[in-house]
Design goal:
The structure is a homodimer of 405-residue chains.
Chain A lengths: L16 E6 L11 E6 L4 E6 L7 H9 L7 E8 L5 H19 L6 E8 L6 H13 L6 H7 L8 E9 L2 E10 L12 E6 L5 H13 L5 E2 L9 E6 L12 H24 L7 E9 L2 H12 L2 H8 L5 H9 L12 E4 L2 E5 L2 E2 L5 H8 L3 E7 L5 E8 L3 H9 L3
Parallel strand pairs in A: 4-5, 8-10, 9-16, 11-15
Antiparallel strand pairs in A: 1-2, 2-4, 3-10, 6-7, 7-8, 11-16, 12-13, 12-15, 13-14
Helix pairs in contact in A: 1-2, 2-3, 5-6, 7-9
């Protein structure tokens, strides 16, 4: 099950960024499961990776290489996460890069590997290496749609976002794809996203830009609070538009950054909406906090409470569970008499209890919607934060308890 | 559903501690829902209460009174939590205490109130006050069994533990009851426990003793990580055995404390085993950590991972999920190569991957059991901690999504 409509947008090609795919036979269906992406010479790259200590072999390798080399290729297999595979897993990740590098006559250190799928099984390394030439021969700037399909695992639909901007009289493209069913399956090695633009961005700056963009998108979504061993986000700037970010006016820089963040956020929300078992898409807004950090604590306490999530699944405007989740957030000096709780724009609780103006049918009407927001006003400062999440349904249990059977 | 056998032990009466119950008509079934407990003059009392900021009105009142008065009565209603009820809720809690105090000619400040049940509804205060005389007239040192039944809400069975010891040639009794279905329902105002002994314990010391006992029992259980607005634990020492704790030999003091902790732990585990939807009782042991705190972080990360819990429900020895939960525990300097993961005494993972000696059927055999342990060896220090939890089942979703419908 997934929330919202299945809509895949028109994907503008990004000059200098080519994508190709083939089938290595890892997916039992025979569908494409190997994706190669090629970056024009001179591209800069930023990356953000899972903080899980048991991160997969390819993640370790990618983290080591990304900032000490001029990256030229990204290679992704699905169906197998190459995680929990020890030294042999590392050798496998290295030899895929080496084989690709040899074919394309580049240094192996300029290739970053990615894997997603089952944990604890070794990669079918020969199959993958045999399928590389076919993926490479299909490289094309128009390869986004195929790549978006080929990186999927348990996703029910492809995820893409793309925008064309005019900055300094020139066209700029930002295009990206993602896979993931809402952080709910570490053993399906959850979230991967690749975003490319043809603006030029300084190598030091792109590290900062992706950190900020991930922080207000992929770091603001949660389905079950679990963190994958393989999560990775990559931002590539090819520079082939002839526009250099650092030479833009401050206004144009802001326009670019806002659009880039929108692409990240759109992809992150598509991941949440495709969360297995999701029947609701829920925005948790915490406003007027003293600090961003306390807003996040309150927000995550609500978004990750099993009791709030099961109430959402039941479309039950059970404000007591939201109130209790705020009370256990760990922000110890909150004045509960000041806190207001809204469903969309309807005030449901204040002064530590039900709002006097609130009637159950007001809340019911909002709870019946597929997309809704829980808005908390802490009434004690200027910070605010937003988190995106889903409900907790029978299907979540079903999918996650039957997955290996 | 509940784990293990339905077994209610023989409850030894505690001299100086009397219990009575009656029906105030809060429970629709007409079952007893009002419990009064009377403490002999000179008793000392220790308490431990929920840290949820939105704690219920009776919890606030009990916290204010417990250490500034010589407590004589505890009064508990079930079916309604008196939480999220603002100033009127406070008045209600006060007037129950006042009415009881008047009947028994004691100061109202010597009465502690407790409530458990639905959040956000006002107490049927007149019904409760009308039912007080009948509860008071039934006060008896043999009232434990009836009280154990009468404090229940959604529990499927009563919870009790009792022991008789010989210390300094005299008999000492420790007897206790609990209610709660595993912290899984803040709006059913989850966990209450009352434990009494006839040893004498100094008032300052009993505060410390209950803190330690709760810390290794009720603070070590988790079903879904949610924290109730009403959780309370009370320890009463009547002193009527004629034995004073502080006059015991160190050996005898240790025997008493160990037995007291066993009673607390037994009640806490009975609460977990009765968790709604629970099909498994799981002990998570984290050993050889640097500090107790890091052992707890790793333990809770496993015990509260939805993915680990659904794997437990499915009896799936999915070590990848346990490994991933350790990796996201937030203990950042763990050396993953040193960590060993066992199911009961079978080594399933080490060196960051599956143990070479491990076969899936070994793990399957353990996973098929109703009670099992997940044992983590961090191999880097002398600290260890134990946490008790359950699986996450279809019934959990069913109960918590249908509860208000």
């Amino acid at each position: 099950m997934a929330v919202g409509k299945d809509f895949f947008p028109k994907m503008y090609p990004v000059p200098g960024f080519r994508l190709g795919a083939s089938s290595a036979g890892i997916k039992k269906s025979g569908k494409k499961d190997l994706v190669v992406m090629e970056l024009a010479e001179g591209s800069t790259v930023g990356g953000s990776f899972t903080k899980n200590l048991f991160c997969a072999a390819p993640v370790k390798l990618a983290k080591e290489r990304i900032y000490s080399n001029k990256i030229r290729y990204l290679v992704t297999n699905t169906g197998n996460a190459n995680a929990g595979t020890g030294d042999l897993g590392r050798q496998h990740a290295e030899s895929i890069c080496e084989s690709l590098a040899k074919s394309m006559s580049v240094n192996k250190e300029t290739v970053l590997p990615f894997s997603t799928g089952v944990i604890g099984e070794y990669l079918p390394i020969e199959k993958i290496i045999s399928a590389l030439p076919s993926a490479l021969s299909s490289l094309s700037e128009n390869g986004w749609d195929t790549a978006a399909m080929s990186i999927l695992t348990t996703d029910t639909r492809p995820k893409g976002a793309s925008v064309k901007l005019k900055l300094s009289e020139k066209n700029i493209i930002i295009t990206g794809i993602a896979k993931g069913s809402g952080m709910i399956r570490p053993d399906m090695a959850t979230m991967l996203t690749y975003i490319a633009t043809d603006i030029a961005i300084d190598q030091e700056l792109i590290k900062e830009i992706i950190r900020n963009a991930v922080d207000c998108s992929f770091n603001r979504i949660t389905v079950d609070g679990d963190m994958s061993t393989n999560d990775s986000a990559i931002l590539v700037a090819t520079g082939l538009s002839g526009v250099d970010f650092s030479e833009l006016s401050l206004d144009d820089q802001k326009i670019f950054i806002d659009n880039l963040k929108d692409i990240f956020l759109s992809l992150a929300c598509q991941v949440v909406q495709d969360g297995e078992g999701a029947t609701k898409f829920v925005t948790v807004r915490v406003s007027s906090g003293k600090t961003a950090s306390e807003c996040l604590r309150v927000g995550y306490s609500i978004a990750e409470s099993s009791l709030v999530k099961t109430a959402l699944f039941a479309s039950d405007p059970n404000w007591g569970r939201i109130l209790s989740a705020i009370g256990m957030s760990g922000v110890l000096d909150l004045d509960i008499k000041k806190i207001q709780i809204y469903l969309d724009d309807v005030l449901i609780a204040e002064n530590g209890g039900r709002a006097s103006s609130y009637m159950e049918n007001f809340g019911q009407e909002i709870m019946d919607k597929e997309s809704l927001s829980i808005n908390i006003n802490l009434n004690r400062g200027d910070s605010s934060e937003i988190i995106y999440t889903t409900d907790l349904s029978h299907d979540y249990i079903k999918i996650n308890s039957e997955y290996r059977s």
